[in-house]
Amino acid sequence: MKIYYIFIIIFSFYSCKSNTQEIEQSKTDEILFAKIKGDSYVYVLDTLSFKESISGNFFSKESKKDTYDKVNIIKSQTLGNTNEDYYYVVLIHFGKKLKTARYLENRSGYLYLNKKTVFNTIYNSCVGVDEKCFPNVVINSDLTRAWICSDKVGVCSLDANECKSIRSIIQE
Questions:
Q1: What is 63-97 written as a DSSP string?
Q2: Parent domain of 55
Q3: Cβ(103)–Cβ(122) under 8 Å?
Q4: Residue 115 lies in a domain
Q5: Is residue 157 part of a domain?
Q6: Predicted TM-score (pTM) above 0.85
Q7: Which in 23, 49, 100, 169 has the greatest CB count within 10 A?
Q8: How many structural domains does the chain have?
Q9: Nearest alpha carbon to residue 153 among 161, 145, 92
Q10: Cβ atoms 90, 74 nearer than 8 A
Q11: Is residue 39 a part of any domain in this protein?
């Protein structure tokens, strides 16, 4: 009987330790992408590898030529009734007229990709030639954030055929 109780006590300690490790792991479920340095950015993440990885998820595996052409960090201001500065990484494919963006969380000048919310994991792609067909974030009345492909809330470029919006989540 004593052996049975000792087993339960040891198992309880192991279980508690295991749960703690999972919680600690979820706290580190983010990637430092870049540091803000004045009006520019110092990339910490290898942008070539990032570009190839995202391209591999968005384009056909058979076409090795199909990769994004450019990776940029953009500082912008949210649209809607609440205006806040925010940062995002955008991958651009000039031939396909495709701009794919993902939100970057700014913490004391360090920009992170993370999975804290569903919004943070979304890749928003805007397809269109119009310079107004570009990723933007709007803060809704319930204070949630949403991606749009326009510089105006509720409008996707002048003609809906000129600008398409696609939202994706990549299992990483």
A1: -TT---SEEEEEEEE-EESS--EEEEEEEEETTTT
A2: 30-169
A3: yes
A4: yes
A5: yes
A6: no
A7: 100
A8: 1
A9: 145
A10: yes
A11: yes
